[in-house]
Design goal:
four-stranded mixed β-sheet, alpha/beta
């Protein structure tokens, strides 16, 4: 049993390192190490520089990969079949999709009872793209549309919410430029 746990920990460490390296390659962002602030009264520096990558556990790895690559136009950047995990990117954001060990026993996310990622919000370049995605989602197997494109509050931002084939919630939004 110990050897198995050690093997899992080693594999997890290798996956994390590979994911980080691939994310750096895709985004061009390199992590920066900052000196620890020793003075309590001095305001802390911002210690982060954006999202390096995002990991999502999925129930249907192949369907989720197809959703990102075929429906959204992202690129498959690699994977680790033994884990199993696949990596996708839109050129700015890098996502690791991890296959749930036992998808039949997996508990779907409920924002009122679960701790964790509520949803992923992605920016689109126009209202037309938002409407085009909505039309694609209507014809994409396994996608559940929670709500169609609508104003966010009083606007001018317009957004919609879906669940990709494994059930992860994804919001798509367009924030028009201010005049």
């Amino acid at each position: 049993m110990r050897k198995s746990n050690r093997s899992i920990k080693k594999a997890s460490t290798r996956i994390h390192l590979l994911t980080t390296l691939l994310a750096i390659t895709v985004t061009g962002m390199v992590p920066v190490t900052h000196a620890f602030e020793k003075t309590v009264n001095k305001p802390a520096k911002v210690m982060t520089q954006g999202i390096n990558h995002l990991g999502l556990t999925v129930a249907k790895l192949d369907q989720s990969v197809r959703f990102f690559t075929e429906t959204l136009g992202w690129q498959l950047k690699g994977g680790v079949p033994s884990y199993p995990a696949k990596f996708v990117s839109d050129g700015k954001l890098f996502i690791t999709l991890w296959q749930a060990k036992d998808p039949e026993k997996a508990v779907p996310f409920n924002r009122k009872t679960n701790i964790g990622l509520h949803h992923l919000a992605l920016t689109v370049d126009s209202f037309e793209t938002l409407d085009l995605l909505h039309q694609r989602f209507l014809h994409t197997p396994g996608v559940v549309i929670e709500f169609a494109p609508e104003l966010n509050g009083k606007g001018p931002t317009k957004h919609m919410m879906i669940r990709e084939p494994s059930g992860n919630r994804i919001e798509f939004a367009h924030n028009p430029p201010k005049n």
